[in-house]
Amino acid sequence: MRREIVINALGSESRVAIIEDGRLVELMNERSDEDRIVGDLYLGRVEAVLPGIQAAFVDIGTEKSAFLHASDVSEVEDDEDENGGGNGGRNGNRRNRKYPPIEDTVERGQEILVQVTKEPIGTKGPRVTTQVSLPGRFIVYMPDSKHVGVSRKIDDREERARLRKMAREAIGSDQGGVIIRTVGEELTKKTLVAEFKSLRRTWEKIQRRVASMKAPASVHREATLTSGIIRDLFSEKVDALTVDSEELAQEIKSYLGQVSPELLDRVRLYGGDVPIFDEFGIEEDIRAAFRRRVDLKSGGYIVIEHTEALVAVDVNTGRYTGKKDPAKTIVKTNLEAAAEIARQLRLRDVGGIIVLDFIDMDEQENRDRVQHEMRSHLGRDRARTKVFGISELGLLEMSRQRVRPSLIQTATQPCPSCGGTGRVLAPDTVVRRLERAIRRARSAGERRDITVRVHPEVALYLLEEEPKFLKRVSAELSIELDIRDDPLMGHDEYKLLVGPAETDVTGKYAVA
């Protein structure tokens, strides 16, 4: 598999694209006027302790108070997660663990050092932990832990044992814990010690800052988007990195020259006349990421729907009918859909509970094949995922780590006309509501002239489909009725204006 990183740094927004085998799989944006706070350290003040939900709310100076769960106060021993405590959040196997009651660990008014693990999403404030972790190029340093771990993605047992032993010998037992990151495979002791000392010095500076600060206050900022990507992702497994900013290219080369000089020849400065994302065909993939429907090469398609509680994905055969065997057609479509769904979840950065509605399969063997395909492609995902079995109805339940708002949440807002439902009332329905509202106004004693304002589409419907509407309603109610089109009105809105002054009485007489 060929993997590339493409960085568009010109303009007010930096965009980082990860491409696998020529297809966009991840997109990250950072605007100059927006703050990304995951990984940042704050000195916060506990505002409230809620034993009922085993959580506390902490004022860290952001718009909404931060959420601190009991599980994020106690030390966690998940030494296989290279993100560390500061970037991970709860994973599946922590749910069943028992933690000291939140009221026994923090108290109202207490000042505590916390690290953000999840961006504010919707009405929820950021999520924080007291388990601080400082990521470096090869290791994650955890000052308050004593555990030494190795990334799950380093699967060679002998190499894992070597790295763990080397780390224990180099660090000692009283200076904190570390996790060897995936890029740290074949790490030397000299490099490990050098990075550990650098992270240790950073931690000592943070402690000195905290001693001189008063909550709430920002203590330490995580690396910028581009710097973090280079640190965390640019490794031997990346075939090329292309950037359109000469200044940024020099910064990247300077950093790599110190930590991974063998990667310098993979950095390329793009100087073409065509924008870099157009050159790599990325812009079209980005536009497609906002569509509900995603077409598959076979002719089938998937539909992705966001709801308040979960994300639902529906798989359909579409125009793909196969040759003879319907069962083979269904399995082929489901297998292709599994690969595409895994890509779309990464690209759209969808998190939380996800329900996949695959086409029904009678044979358990086929369900297992589709589930295995799904797990296989999710193995490339940097976010933690958990996949459950496929039910007899073809439903597969899964969860994906949510660290920040999804692409849809970040780049869009609810439609002012439909309120986010994706549907508006049909013109004939608007007319029926309008007629009932006019009758209510007349029965309440409104005897003056009534002017109605509607969207041009509704006015056109009345003109073409119900041309006798005005005359009929005016005669039945003994009123003068006038219809005017207003392009500023919503498709399913209307206004009732009465009298020479055209007083708006819509609120009094509107009907559902």
Q: Could you characterize the architecture of this molecule?
A:
This protein is α+β, with helices and mostly antiparallel strands. The chain folds into four domains: 3-33 and 234-284, Nucleotidyltransferase, domain 5 (2-Layer Sandwich); 41-221, Beta Barrel (OB fold (Dihydrolipoamide Acetyltransferase, E2P)); 290-411, Aminopeptidase; 427-509, Ribonuclease E, catalytic domain (Hypothetical Protein Ychn, Chain: A). 32% of the residues lie in helices and 25% in strands. The strands form five sheets. Strands 4, 5, 6, 7, 8 and 13 form a six-stranded antiparallel beta sheet that branches. A six-stranded mixed beta sheet has the order 16-17-18-19-21-20, with helices on one face. The chain has a five-stranded mixed beta sheet with strand order 3-2-1-14-15, with helices on both faces. The chain is globular. The model is unreliable at 85-93 (pLDDT under 50).
Number of domains: 4
Helix and strand content put the structural class at alpha+beta
**Distance N to C terminus:** 56 Å
Uncertain residue ranges: 85-93
**Outline type:** globular
**Largest sheet descriptor:** 6 strands, antiparallel
Query: Count the helices. How many?
Result: 15
Number of strands: 25
Query: How would you state the average pLDDT, rounded?
Result: 89
**What is the CATH topology descriptor of the largest domain?**
OB fold (Dihydrolipoamide Acetyltransferase, E2P)
What share of residues is helical? 25-40%
CATH architecture of the largest domain: Beta Barrel
- Reading off the top of the CATH hierarchy, the class of the largest domain is best stated as Mainly Beta
Beta-strand percentage range: 15-25%
CATH superfamily of the largest domain: Nucleic acid-binding proteins
- Radius of gyration, whole Å: 29 Å
